[in-house]
Amino acid sequence: MNGTTTTRGNRKRRISSTAGLGLSLAAVAAFAAACGGGSDSASGSASSPASGGGASSSASAPAASGSSAGGAGTAAVSSIGTKSGDMGSYLTDNAGKTIYLFAQDTSGKSTCDGDCAAAWPPVTADAAPKAGPGVTAGKLSVVKRSDGTSQVAYAGHPLYYFAGDSAAGDTKGQGVDGFGAKWWLVGPDGKQITKTASPTANDGGGSGSDAGGGWS
């Protein structure tokens, strides 16, 4: 009887140990699964910055810059004056920049637009500028261009700069034949000056007061 009881007790202990081992293995498996899921989640999370990095790279691409206004972007003048040089006395703006007329403008309106206006920027102002030394105020006016801007005119001639003049006193545009007609300096009387200077004077900006800056 005692032997039977002992045998049964041993069997119960083995079953209990087996059951406990099974529960432990199950717990370990569940823990491993949980860890594996966390790893996947972390992996997915780690991939997010890579994707975000691509977006950041795209966002950092430089934006296209706007096109330049070119010669048409010349600042409006406040007054018109004169300078004297090898070709006589001619009109300039208040900074001493040489001013020209276009022989093709015969109706008091500008016929210079597009590429022409880029090479020969119009002298612009919101209203007729002040008359400086040697200039007749009554000859100054403004005319509307095709783009709606106001261009200064003198004695009925729309006025222009020359893109090739880099400094006050330069007269490199004098006598140039371009865009259908010639370009001339403008005298204080409002007439075109057709005299041309020597290449040295023309390239270097003339002599005397002609090579100086603006006037006040």
Counting structural domains, the number is 2
**What would you report as the Rg, rounded to the nearest angstrom?**
44 Å
Query: Got a strand count?
Result: 10
Strand content: 15-25%
| Secondary-structure content class | alpha+beta
Count helical runs. 3
In percent, how helical is the residue content? Answer: 25-40%
* Biggest beta sheet summary: 4 strands, antiparallel
Unreliable parts? 2-7, 15-73, 200-213
Note the overall shape: globular
**Termini gap:** 134 Å
Q: What is the element string, with H for helices and E for strands? A: HEEEHEEEEEEEH
Mean pLDDT: 73
Q: Can you tell me about this structure?
A:
The chain has 216 residues and is α+β, with helices and mostly antiparallel strands. The chain has two domains: 1-53; 74-211, no CATH class. It contains three helices and ten strands. The chain has helices at residues 2-59, 115-119, 199-204; strands at 79-85, 88-93, 100-102, 130-131, 140-144, 150-154, 157-158, 177-178, 181-186, 192-193. Strands 3, 8, 9 and 10 form a four-stranded antiparallel beta sheet that branches. Strands 2-1-4 form a three-stranded mixed beta sheet, with no helix packed on it. A hairpin with a 2-residue loop joins strand 1 (79-85) and strand 2 (88-93). The termini are far apart. Residues 2-7, 15-73 and 200-213 have low confidence and may be disordered.
